[in-house]
Structures are given as C-alpha cells and as structure tokens.
Amino acid sequence: QKEVEQNSGPLSVPEGAIASLNCTYSDRGSQSFFWYRQYSGKSPELIMFIYSNGDKEDGRFTAQLNKASQYVSLLIRDSQPSDSATYLCAVEDTDKLIFGTGTRLQVFP
Amino acid sequence: DAGVIQSPRHEVTEMGQEVTLRCKPISGHDYLFWYRQTMMRGLELLIYFNNNVPIDDSGMPEDRFSAKMPNASFSTLKIQPSEPRDSAVYFCASSLGGNTEAFFGQGTRLTVV
After folding, report:
1. pLDDT digit string (tens) for B28-54?
2. Is the pLDDT of residue B1 over 70?
3. Among partner residues A31, A45, A102, which is closest to B42 by beta-carbon distance?
4. Helix (H, G, I), strand (E, B), or coil: what is residue B41?
5. Do the Cβ atoms of B100 and A98 come within 8 Å?
6. Quick one: what percent of chain B has pLDDT higher than 90?
7. CB–CB of B104 and A43 under 8 A?
C-alpha cells in the first residue's frame, strides 16, 4: 500500500511568519506532487504542483521536492490568517492521486 | 465551465436505504475519481474511471458500493444498503490526465442514521 505521510498538526504560526508543511511518500517511482488547500467545509483546491527536484515558487508559496529523500514540502511566506486551512499533500500513483491526511495550519494575528 | 458538479450536497438517510450520489465532471476531462473523506482516514480514493471505463476499484470498501459512468458527462456512486459507518463526505473529481491536477466538486455530505 503506497503511503503519503503528513503531520496532522495543528501547526500554529503568527501572522507574518513562515509556515513550513512537510510530506513524505513511500513510492520512489512517483513523479508528480501536488499541494491542495482545504478550508473547513469546502473542497480541496490546488495550490501548487511540482515535478522536478528543487524549489518552485509561486507568490508567497514555495514547493520543495527531494526525490532521493522522498520528501516534499510547502513553505508559506508572510502567513496570513486567511491561510488557516488544512493542507493536503498528494502524490501521483499511476494515473491517480494518493492523498495524505493533511496538516491543519492556524495563523494567529 | 461550472466545474465539477455533485448532487445532492447533503443527504440524510436511514440505515438500510439505498443512496445514490451523482457527479458531472468538467467537459473534456478524461478521468473521473470518487473519493471519501473522514476525520479518521482522510481522503481515500474509492474508484476512478478513464474514458468512462472503471480502471481501479480497489478502494471500494465492500460490495455494498458500486459506481458507474454511462457517459462522459455523468457518474454515480451507489451504496446499497447504507450503514452508519458510511457517513462521510464524498467527493467527485475530474482531470485531463491521470497525473495532472484533479478538480474537485463541492462534495456530498452523507449521514446515515
């Protein structure tokens, strides 16, 4: 059973700080990695995807991928209270996405 | 496009009743996924289709669950008979390719009493 592991949190950070969310996966053959954000009572929505080792930046968000360590992370700079949500890591497995259980992020003013 | 459309948004039913959840994927998307989300188990893939053909149903919990996709614009997930442990939020998602972004519907919150 291929697995995607995330710390459930909550991860609490003050407004303006950097939030660091981490994810490990078991299938060394996985090629595509996704970060979704899910607000309470809403559906998941894509924030970023990453395919290559290294960093990928989009605004306040940076995804980091290390395939050798089977590790993908999401950094949120200048965290805002509106970033408070559950962040789901998803890993591609032969035409489907396997999701972690998510990390709940709380950004307090 | 209006996105992935699911119905109903909420369903409350009694144990033993049949429940049918419906999904309309985004036009042109070849893949359709049914997920179930609970606090304990997170987002679990139940089944997915490629070009209306079921590819992997290994996540379907038991024979009480069945899914169909009669055409490219419609899919159903049926539970018969329903049990209280089936209470969860069921999401339908669609994507252009299997390893590309999946777009989620608003979900159906199912409560079986």
Report:
1. 999 999 999 998 889 999 999 999 999
2. no
3. A102
4. coil
5. no
6. 89
7. yes
Contact A96 B45 (CB under 8 A): yes
Question: Would you list the DSSP string of B60-89?
Answer: --STTEEEEEEETTEEEEEESS--GGG-EE
How much is the pLDDT for A69? Answer: 93
With CA atoms as reference, the chain B residue closest to A47 would be: B101
What is the arithmetic mean of pLDDT over A8-12? 93
Taking contacts as CB-CB distances below 8 angstroms, the residues of chain A near B41 are 101
pLDDT tens sequence across A61-73: 999 999 999 999 9
Which of A97, A103, A104 has the most B C-beta neighbours within 10 Å, making it the best mutation to test the interface with B? A97
Strands (E), chain A: 4-5, 11-14, 19-25, 33-38, 45-50, 54-58, 61-66, 71-76, 85-92, 97-99, 103-108
Banded model confidence at residue A99, pLDDT cuts 50, 70, 90:
very high
Q: CB contacts < 8 Å between A and B, how many?
A: 51
Minimal Cβ distance to B99: which of A43, A95, A100:
A95
More confident of the two residues B81 and B99: B81
